[in-house]
Amino acid sequence: MNKQTYNKRLMSNMSVNGQNHLVIDGVDTVDIVNKYGTPVNVYDISLIKQKISAFKEAFKNYENKTQVAYASKAFSSLALYEMLAKEDVSLDVVSGGELFLALKAGFPKERIHFHGNNKSYEELEAAISEQIGCIVIDNFYEIGMIKELTDKCDTKVDVLIRVTPGVEAHTHEYITTGQADSKFGFDLTSGQVETAIKQIKSIERINMIGLHAHIGSQIFEVDGYQVVIEKLISKAKEWKNAYNFDLDVLNVGGGFGIRYTDEDAPLPLEEYAKAIMSAVRKHAELNDMELPEIWIEPGRSIVGEAGTSLYTIGTQKTIPSIRKYVSVDGGMADNIRPALYQAEYTGVLANRVNEEEEEKVSIAGKACESGDMLIWDITLPQPDQNDILAVFSTGAYGYSMASNYNRLPRPAVVFVENGKDFLAIRRETVQDYLKLENSIENWK
Ligand SMILES: *Cc1c(COP(=O)(O)O)cnc(C)c1O
């Protein structure tokens, strides 16, 4: 394979320097490894900022107002939240933990939206007493708790109703399901949404501002969004007539697809924006309704491609005429997606990017699970011990889903921007484990 083909595989803001090292946003990845060790997750902050402004650009040229909320479950850290606070985006949180960290980072409360199918009383109390921007109500139990808490805190709260629209988007198709079989939201087909609207309408301190639906993830087509928009707007019209329901905000969720491997060809953001906004306009006009404000919630598409995982190569095992396993010093503990979703990744040897001698190998993690494989069948320059493997597009649902399985410490997280690096999250150490532990000696 020639140089060109390799270069084609690199992600944006990546280059190769004179030493044949992978460079991300001006920082040599070999220097990062020397400084911080492996495994390490590197985030290209310039690329995150580019993605945010691309989303805002794509959605801003339409008549109705729009709001971009970063779905922080994809990746959160104090420093990321601090950076996002300056970026004029909103933020989705799904737990008291994410809310706590966002508030610690000084993220503007009024721009925080709280999601989740099982928000606890304590979590809702934190959200309501802090007067965050919006709660996305998911179920009847929550309505009762929010009523109680708004009374207790003597405050009002804006809410969206999460609807299970019976539309499920898969990577290249969407499925319209009659009975929406999902743990999230109020079911559209069985009348749950109507019941919820009636209940919420009767509660003075809950201010219902609209509807929310999220149809899936890693979506490469626009039709799923359009079908949901059509459904929800025509329903909203019915509810306007029946219950005086106002659709001020329509939140169409996240799910915009990204490039993990060369197989993935994500749509330009303008295509999603155009499809979403034209469907909204069309169905608002058909139903003689005002244009609602449109909110979107990208997670993966903001941080996914900006993340690169660097690992050190250790042992190798060749099974004649079957395959060669090359093991790295991380795996499912820092990136569960291959094991959980059969997710596919690609990458390069970061210290020998454009070398010609190549072979096909499979990359194994170090956890005690046969399923701990990061990449099956990748073509790389013949790997040696202590080479560095860079795995691309690991920025979403990697670190945020990381575990301590096998007591593997969570990796360090390093931000890079314009040639500078910054340790955003230090590597976990065995001493960190002890903070949670109690000795049996203390059991008197
Ligand atoms: C997960 C999730 C998102 C983000 O999805 P991505 O695929 O990362 O864009 C947005 N909204 C809701 C409600 C989600 O659950």
From TrEMBL:
Chain positions found as N6-(pyridoxal phosphate)lysine: K73
Pfam family, any one: Orn_Arg_deC_N
Cofactor(s) for this UniProt protein: pyridoxal 5'-phosphate
Domain Orn/DAP/Arg decarboxylase 2 N-terminal, chain residue ranges per copy: 48-303
Active site positions, chain numbering: C368 (proton donor)
EC number(s) from the headed UniProt entry: 4.1.1.20
Binding site for pyridoxal 5'-phosphate: G255, E297, P298, G299, R300, Y397
An example Gene Ontology biological process: lysine biosynthetic process via diaminopimelate
Binding residues annotated for substrate, in chain numbering: R300, R337, Y341, E369, Y397
Reactions catalysed: meso-2,6-diaminopimelate + H(+) = L-lysine + CO2
Assigned keywords, A-Z: Amino-acid biosynthesis, Decarboxylase, Lyase, Lysine biosynthesis, Pyridoxal phosphate
Enzyme class: lyase
InterPro entries tied to this protein: Ala_racemase/Decarboxylase_C, DAP_deCOOHase_LysA, De-COase2_CS, De-COase2_N, Orn/DAP/Arg_de-COase, PLP-binding_barrel
Annotated GO MF terms: diaminopimelate decarboxylase activity; pyridoxal phosphate binding
Pathway assigned in UniProt: Amino-acid biosynthesis; L-lysine biosynthesis via DAP pathway; L-lysine from DL-2,6-diaminopimelate: step 1/1
Record-stated family: Belongs to the Orn/Lys/Arg decarboxylase class-II family. LysA subfamily.
Subunit structure comment from the entry: Homodimer.
UniProt function note: Specifically catalyzes the decarboxylation of meso-diaminopimelate (meso-DAP) to L-lysine.
Name of the protein described by the UniProt record: Diaminopimelate decarboxylase
